[in-house]
Prior knowledge:
By secondary structure, this protein is α/β, with parallel strands linked by helices. The chain has one domain (about 5-50, about 85-205): 3-Layer(aba) Sandwich (Rossmann fold). It is built from five helices and eight strands. The chain has helices at about 30-35, 130-140, 150-165, 185-195, 200-205; strands spanning about 5-10, 45-50, 70-75, 75-80, 105-110, 145-150, 170-175, 200. β7, α4 and β8 form a beta-alpha-beta unit. The longest helix is centred in the C-terminal third of the chain and has 14 residues, at about 150-165. The model has no long low-confidence stretch (mean pLDDT about 95). Bound molecules: pyrazine-2-carboxylic acid and zinc ion. Zinc ion binds near residues 49, 57, 84, 85 and 110.
Amino acid sequence: MPPSALLLIIDVQNDFLPGGALAVPRGDEVITVVNALVPRFANVIATQDWHPAGHVSFASSHAGKRPFETIDLAYGRQVLWPDHCVQGTRGAALADGLDLTRAQAIVRKGYHAHTDSYSAFLEADRVTPTGLAAMLCERGITDVYCCGLATDFCVAWSALDAQAAGFATFVVEDACRAIDTGGSLAAARAQLAAAGVGMLASTELAAR
Ligand code: VGL
Ligand code: ZN
C-alpha cells in the first residue's frame, strides 16, 4: 500500500465480540483478517468506543426503554443499546488477539455523556470533531481503509465521514462484521455506495 494509505481499525473491543455486552455475530472472526492487513500498511490507527456510565446511548439510561429501540434526541434518532464499552472496563478493552504493535494512535470516541459517536471523525451531533481528520491531513494521509466492528454502525459512519472529509475511502468487507438491526446493514451498504466509498475484499488489496 502507498505510504499515504491508512488502515483504520474500528472498535475491535471485547464488548463487541461473542460473549460481550453488545456482541456482533461472528465479530471475533475479524481479528485474524485485520491482523493480516496490518503489515501491509505504513499507517495504522485504531478506535475505541469509550462511554461513561449512564451514557445517553444506553437503554438503561431511559426509563421504560429496551435495547434496540430508538428515541429521538436533540441531534436526531438514536438507537438504544445495552450498556457497553464503559470506560475502564474489561468490555471496553481492545481485543486481546488484535495486533496493535504498529498502531500509531488509538482514538477514543463516545466519551461525552449526552452525545453518541459511531464515527471516528464526527460525533452524532454532526458538529463536534474528534480531531482525527486534522491528524490525518497533517500527516499527509490521502486514502483510508476501514475495517472492524460493526459494519453497519461505526464502520459505516466512519467511512462516510472519511469520504466526506476528502479522503479516498474504502471498506474492507471481509474484515468487518455487522449488527444488522432493523435493516441497518442494507441501509448502510446503500449509503456507502451512494457516497462513493469503495467496497472491497482483503484479497483485492493484495494488488494495490
Ligand atoms: C457501535 C453501537 C454502539 C459500533 C458502537 O462500534 O459499531 N455500535 N456503539
Ligand atoms: Zn457505543
